[in-house]
Structure formats: C-alpha cells, structure tokens
Design a protein that fits this description.
The structure holds 2 protein chains of 2 kinds. Chain A has helices at about 1-5, 15-25, 45-70, 90-95, 100-130, 135-150, 150-160, 170-175, 190-215, 220-230, 235-260, 265-270, 285-295, 300-335, and strands at about 75, 85. Chain A is mainly α. Chain A has a single domain, classed as MetI-like fold, CATH 1.10.3720.10. A two-stranded antiparallel ribbon of chain A has the order 1-2. The longest helix of chain A is centred in the C-terminal third of the chain and has 36 residues, at about 300-335. The two termini of chain A are about 30 Å apart. The two termini of chain B are about 25 Å apart. Chain B has a domain at about 95-255 and about 270-295: Orthogonal Bundle (MetI-like fold), CATH 1.10.3720. Chain B is mainly α. Chain B is built from 14 helices and no strands. The chains are: A mainly alpha, B mainly alpha. Chains A and B meet through α1, α2, α3, α5 and α6 of A and α2, α5, α6, α7 and α9 of B.
C-alpha cells in the first residue's frame, strides 16, 4: 500500500491499492453475522446506479444524434418535428455540389492546422520548462490555466479587441516597430491566423499540464541511463521524453483535432456582431458555423443535419487514422525488441 | 474479494484519505530551473494573463484614448461606468443568476450521477458491467454539436426554448465523469470496507451513502470544480436554446456586440463582469483545479 501511495502514477495507474490491502488482511473469518446486506457480486442495483447516465445520455445525446441522420434524408424546416419530406440522399448530393461546404471544409482544415500544431508544440515545450524545479510552481501553473478558465465568448471578444483594425493594441505594436497595420478580420489568412491564436491561447496551458503529468510518470532510471551514455539535455528530451509521451501526444492530437473540426464560437464572435457568415467573403466560416447558418439562419435543418453528419464522418476518419498510427507505432516497437 | 476484516484499523475511513489524486512532488531528477527557464515561464504566464488584463484597460478607455501613442496601460474608474452600461444593454444580473443556477444544477447532477455509476462500475458485479463501461467510454466520441438539431426540435416541441431546463437537462451527465469516478473508486475504496458494511447488514444504498460517498469526496470535489467551470463556459447549446431575454452569461456577452453601434469599451466591461466569478473561483481553487486536470488526464 505504501508502494502504491508513494508512486507518482496517477488515477488510472494505481490499481494496486485495493489488492495490496486485501493481502494485508488476515484471512480469519469471524463467526457468521446474523444478518447480511446484499452481496456486492451479482448486485442488481448495479443497473439502477448506472441507469441515470444511460437514460440522460440516451434521451439527450444518442437519440438526437441518430435522429440527425434521419433528418439529413429529409427536406425539413426547424418546425418539422415529424421529419419533413423524405428526399433520400438529395441533401448529400447538394452538399457535395455546395461551394460553401468546400470553402468551410478548407477553412476548418487550415484553421485547425494553424491552431493545433503550434498549440501542441508550445504545450510540449512549456511542459518541459514546468518540469524543472521552479519556485512558485503552483502559481505559474495556475496562471497558465487561466485561459482555459476563460470562456470561448469572453476570449474571442477580448481578442477581437486586441486584433482590432483601428484601436487594437496589436496593430499599435506593429506600427511602433515600423510595420503596417493589418486589417485582421478582412483578410483570409490574417483572420484565420487570429482565430487560431485565440484557440492556441485558450488550450496551450491545459495541454501543457497534461504533458507535464505524463512526464512526471516517466521512470527516472531512463534519464539516468541516458545521462550515463552522455546524452545532452536536448537529446534526453528527444530520445527519452518524446517517445515516452507518445500515447499522451496521440491522445491530445485526437482531442484537439476533434475540437478543431467543431470550431464554432470563435468564428461566430470574431467580427463582434454574431454574424453566421464567417466574414464578408466567408473567409473564416467553419463547418460548425455553416451548420448553424443552414439550420438557424436559413431554417433548412435537412441540410444542416447533412453537414453535421459530414463532420461526424471526418471525425471518424481522424479517429481511425489515429488508431492506425498507434498500431503501426506499437508494432514497430515490438519488432525492435 | 472475500477477505474478511480482522484489524479494524484498516477499515477506518483513513484508508480512503490516502487519495490517488494526491501526487508526489516532481522527482529529484528534474534539474533546477535556470534563468532562461524562468524568463520563458514568466513570459508565458504574462501572455496567459495579458488579454484579461487588457480587457480591464480597454474597458475603461474610449476609442480615442486607446489609440493614443503610447496607449494607456492602466485601468481606471470609468470601468465601473462601463460595467453599468453593459448591464443596461444586456441583463447581466439575470445572466449571472441564471448561470449560477444552471451551473450549480449541472454540477450537482453530474457529480451525483457520475459517482453512482462510477461506484457501480468499480465495485458492483452485474451482468454486462464491462460492456456497459466500454459503451460509456465510447459515448465520449459522440460530439455534442451533432445532436443539436433534433435536440432543438425536441425542446421547441416541449416549449422549453428560453427556459433553463433546456440547458440543464442535456448536460446532466458526463461520460468523462463516470470514467473518472470509476478509476478513483476502484483504487481508493477497499473491498473490505464494503464487505464490512455488508456484514453489518447495510443495504446497497446505505453502503453508498455511508461508506462510498465519504471515500469519494476528494474526487467528487475535483469533478465538481471541472464540471462547474465547463458548465459556466458552455456556449454552443445555450446560444441555440436561450435568447437574449433569458440568457446565461455567455449568451449575454455574445449579444453585447450585436448592437448597431457596438461600443468596444462596454463590451469589454461586460465580458469582464461575466468572467469575474469564474476567475474568482479560480484564484481560490486554482491549485485543486490544476491537480484535478493533471490527475484525470493521464491514461494508465
């Protein structure tokens, strides 16, 4: 028990605790108790205890999720609770011929890459820094988690001010160093970079803490061995830290990518007026925003549901690719051993 | 496990207090931070805080003042006037009250339901236990955005649009929470303790309330904080289900910018007002939230 208690492994890792306790206990049975409560093995209350989760999830997530597929086969308005007119795969054909869809898909991918790659690289570097013995460790970690505690709406409105064309501090700073002012919202790349900056700001600290937690569970012997082989700090980071973090990195890549595919609040509020077009030329309209526009501005929920399912298929594709990547990794490692 | 307790000291709640949530300090192999590390860490901390600080500055100056060279770097009392004007443009008081109600209800429900399910998955043996648990984990893959269309049609049919239950009920459980509580309880809750309760003739409910809940308290606190934070910041579904007439904080501040002549200083002041409660919570419980994220994040 002391062993499990002292180990730096976290929640999911410390399965030894209960077993260790069992071994501590002498196996002497007392005289039979007069009245026993229900056995914990074969306990029908198990179903009762997990029921609230499944009832709420089924009613408010699973059923609507499946119903979205049904609606995508219909020409339906928001008021058509019964489903509208059945049109088969027409909505999907229309989606593939819809320039707005391809534009939104392209924007989602570029903003996603601009937001996810720097975010995770920065988080990795930051975790490495935080892993050193620092004075005021908790203070720094808390400050770095502040952006995560700031809501999407608040963060986007504040950053829209920072990126403002006429009064934004970022343009003031650019001018001070002799560069031109940028109309961040109007340009395609500039607006997408600005939105990626918001996402990166909100999530870097959070991901850094996840990496840090994983770094702390890397056995010290690995570093000692590397040090004996004369590996520098940097080489230790490359050849010990990164390989040990591989599962965690894969996990954060999948989670961030799924988040990026669903990006919605930032592009909705970036212009400040809650417009669903994603800029005057749709230059930063994402799939999530397009779905919202189709459903709640154009009231065409059949098309919105089709876009939703397209998003889901893309997410499935990402998860599938990650699973394949993970398998290839472990197989290759298996070969080496 | 059928081992029976002999030494009563082992069954004391102290067992549960040795929480797996508590982490050991970083191991000694991590070197001391040099000046470069400190510089980079301080810089990152500044970048993390600057936008929120700038909101107080921009919230207390007119456009002309903010465009001056050099720009002002301190907030002033105008901020309070602008907060008052934000409260005129959007019902900020009502929004904060609504957000407190919604987030509290979601937190209580999520923590209770997730602890119930987590306990069942960790300690009760019933047919299909494993299959159901993998179902729970699988549900984390269903993105909430893809359910909103029928969900909106449902609440429209129930005449729940603009009513708080529309944003509370769908968010009342969390797959992550179930998994989190299950992982915690399967290590922190000794089977002997449950067996002892059973020998004493306690019902399953009695065992849950008298034995499981006290042991689960640290994990429930962490899950509660994270749930409250997420619920307070939830944006996508509330902006669909609620209107500016009966908003949560996020809906209210999103609508601050949609006037004909959006006033940047007022938007910043209102945004700050809506963010302040969660920042206050964060200032007090930041350490616990950091610990919670780090303990829940690592997969075995």
């Amino acid at each position: 028990m002391t062993l499990a208690d002292d180990s730096p492994r976290t929640l999911a890792g410390t399965t030894g605790l209960a077993d260790a306790t069992a071994q501590d206990v002498a196996d002497v049975r007392p005289p039979r108790a007069p009245r026993r409560g229900p056995s914990l093995s074969r306990n029908r209350w198990g179903y009762g205890y997990v029921a609230p989760f499944f009832v709420v999830f089924g009613a408010f997530s699973l059923f609507p999720f499946l119903f979205t597929a049904w609606i995508s086969l219909h020409d339906a308005r928001l008021s058509d609770i019964d489903g509208g007119t059945f049109v088969g795969l027409d909505n999907y054909a229309a989606l593939l011929g819809n320039d707005f869809f391809w534009n939104a898909l392209r924007n989602t991918i570029t903003i996603g890459i601009l937001a996810t790659v720097p975010q995770l690289c920065l988080a990795l570097g930051l975790a490495h820094l935080l892993h050193y013995k620092l004075r005021g460790r908790t203070f720094f970690r808390t400050l770095m988690l502040m952006p995560y505690a700031t809501s999407i709406a608040a963060a986007t409105l504040v950053f829209a001010t920072l990126f403002g064309r006429d009064y934004g501090i970022i343009n003031t700073a650019l001018e001070a160093v002799g560069l031109d002012r940028v109309d961040w919202e109007a340009g395609t790349w500039s607006s997408q970079i600005a939105i990626a900056v918001i996402v990166t700001w909100r999530w870097t600290g959070y991901n850094a803490l996840i990496y840090l937690a994983a770094m702390q569970s890397i056995p010290g012997e690995l570093y000692e061995a590397a040090e004996m082989d004369g590996a520098s700090r940097w080489r230790q980071f490359l050849h010990v830290t990164i390989p040990s973090l591989r599962p965690t990195i894969l996990f954060t890549v999948v989670v961030s990518t799924i988040g990026a595919i669903q990006l919605f609040g930032e592009p909705l509020l970036f212009a400040g007026n809650g417009s669903t077009t994603g800029g005057s030329r749709n230059q930063y309209q994402t799939l999530g925003l397009l779905m919202y526009q189709q459903g709640w501005s154009n009231f065409n929920v059949g098309q919105a549901a089709t876009t939703a399912w397209a998003m889901f298929l893309i997410i499935l594709l990402v998860i599938g690719l990650a699973a394949v990547a993970g398998r290839i990794r472990s197989r290759r490692r298996g070969d080496l051993r | 496990m059928t081992a029976v307790l002999d030494r009563p000291s082992d069954s004391s709640p102290e067992v549960g207090r040795r929480s797996p949530l508590r982490r050991r300090k970083p191991r000694s192999r991590a070197g001391k931070a040099g000046p470069i590390t400190y510089t980079l860490v301080v810089l990152t901390a500044l970048v993390s805080v600057f936008p929120l600080y700038w909101a107080t500055v921009a919230g207390s100056h007119t456009n002309a003042e903010i465009a001056a060279k050099p720009p002002p770097f301190l907030p002033n009392a105008t901020l309070f006037e602008n907060v008052a004007r934000a409260s005129e443009q959007a019902p900020m008081g009502l929004a904060i009250l609504n957000s407190v109600l919604v987030s509290s209800a979601i937190t209580v429900g999520t923590v209770l339901f997730c602890t119930l399910a987590g306990f069942a998955f960790a300690k009760l043996r019933f047919k299909g236990n494993g299959v159901l648990l993998s179902l729970v984990v699988g549900t984390m893959m269903v993105p909430t955005q893809l359910s909103v269309i029928p969900l909106f049609m449902m609440i429209a049919d129930l005449q729940w649009v603009d009513q708080l239950q529309a944003v509370i009920l769908p968010t009342l459980v969390s797959a992550f929470g179930v998994f989190f509580m299950r992982q915690y309880l399967s290590t922190a809750l000794p089977d002997e303790l449950l067996e002892a309760g059973r020998v004493d003739g306690a019902s399953t409910h009695r065992i849950f309330f008298s034995i499981v809940l006290p042991v689960a308290r640290p994990a429930m606190a962490v899950l509660g904080m994270l749930t409250f934070l997420t619920a307070w910041n939830e944006f996508f579904w509330p902006i669909i289900a609620l209107t500016a007439a009966n908003p949560t904080v996020q809906v209210a501040i999103a609508n601050l910018g949609s006037g004909y002549v959006p006033q940047r200083a007022v938007i910043m002041a209102g945004t700050l007002l809506g963010t302040l409660p969660v920042l206050a919570v964060f200032a007090v419980l930041g350490k616990q939230i950091v610990g919670g994220i780090m303990s829940g994040a690592v997969k075995g």
